[in-house]
């Protein structure tokens, strides 16, 4: 059974409190929160005022996915805005090891997100200090995109590397997760499934979360 992390990006921002309370009272495990800067990805999502508003209502683990350049500039601010897990992109932080240590020193769990073109082999030398790897199964920037099939092989490869290193890193899959591909993702080694469109475009989001949880 995987952790389920509904993606707030797909919520109705005119009724944000209602949608956050739906996640609070559902079987979801985490809140997945996407921050985009319009530079690293071709989209801008939201910043600290919205994060602070989310933090006041969201009662579960806040899994914050930074799609921003040079994320090391804002680590403390994300801690203050309520992040429990902070993931930065491999492609966005030059001194990644330093950034991961800084996240952990702020008492957050440290994650690395990988774009679809980035090999999991590149993580070999940092894996022992990484709490979460976010494998992007779409090109980051937007909800509701088509799942990239190569993801299955990436998960298997990363799982092997984690076992080889005796690390306790969790594998999260982000993008295009649905009720059809979820079980195969878990079979391959996924621990956490992000779901935006699948949850929020469904007729009964609470029930969809429960179905994902059954997988
Ligand atoms: C994409 C984001 C995802 C997105 C997933 O850049 O990182 O978290 O919200 O949305 P779905 O599940 O709709 O692909
Ligand atoms: Zn995300």
CATH architectural arrangement: Alpha-Beta Barrel
Put simply, the count of helices is 8
**List of distinct ligands in this structure:** D-xylitol-5-phosphate, zinc ion
- Rg calculated over all Cα atoms: 16 Å
Helix content: 25-40%
CATH C-level category: Alpha Beta
Q: Mean pLDDT score, rounded?
A: 98
The N- to C-terminal Cα distance equals 6 Å
The CATH H-level superfamily is Aldolase class I
Query: What's the number of extended β-strand segments?
Result: 8
CATH fold label: TIM Barrel
In the residues, how many domains can be counted?
1
* Dominant shape: globular
Structural class, by secondary structure, is alpha/beta
How are strands sequenced across the largest beta sheet?
1-8-7-6-5-4-3-2
Major beta sheet summary: 8 strands, parallel
Which regions have little confidence, pLDDT < 50, spanning 5+ residues?
none
| Percentage of β-strand residues | 15-25%
Order of helices and strands: EHEHEHEHEEHEHEHH
Description:
The chain is α/β, with parallel strands linked by helices. The chain has one domain: Aldolase class I (TIM Barrel, Alpha-Beta Barrel), CATH 3.20.20.70. The chain is built from 8 helices and 8 strands, in the order βαβαβαβαββαβαβαα. It has an 8-stranded parallel beta sheet with strand order 1-8-7-6-5-4-3-2. The radius of gyration is 16 Å and the shape is globular. The model has no long low-confidence stretch (mean pLDDT 98).
How would you describe this structure in keywords?
single chain, 215 residues, alpha/beta, TIM Barrel, eight-stranded parallel beta sheet, 8 helices, 20% strand, binds D-xylitol-5-phosphate, binds zinc ion
